[in-house]
Amino acid sequence: MEEQVISLEHALWEAVLHQNTAAFQELVFPSAVMICGGCRCLGSEYAGIIADFFISSYTITHMEVIYARPDQVMLHYVLQTEVADSRDRDLAGTFHVASVWGRHGDSFKLLFNMDSKIVQP
């Protein structure tokens, strides 16, 4: 179960990387709460926003399962993103990310996601 959710988290970032709104919507509840860059929106709204995300690469490290229950899994990890164009520099950096996935049939969907940029001194 935990490995399944970690795999789904990676699939989520692949959808963002390739601006694949349909794949993103398959992974995220429309009513999911998404906190990104200090803004709050729903999963259904965020799916439209990823079309404007131009990240060129991402790396996930320090993945940890905070808790796992049969119906819910919470993850924390560090995300490093890069952009090719300086106009997208707000999307580049290193972030702490926390996400909560809820059971949906035989799989899981994202319920909550929040990131916090790690400020380098």
TrEMBL record:
<dbReference type="InterPro" id="IPR032710">
    <property type="entry name" value="NTF2-like_dom_sf"/>
</dbReference>
<protein>
    <recommendedName>
        <fullName>DUF4440 domain-containing protein</fullName>
    </recommendedName>
</protein>
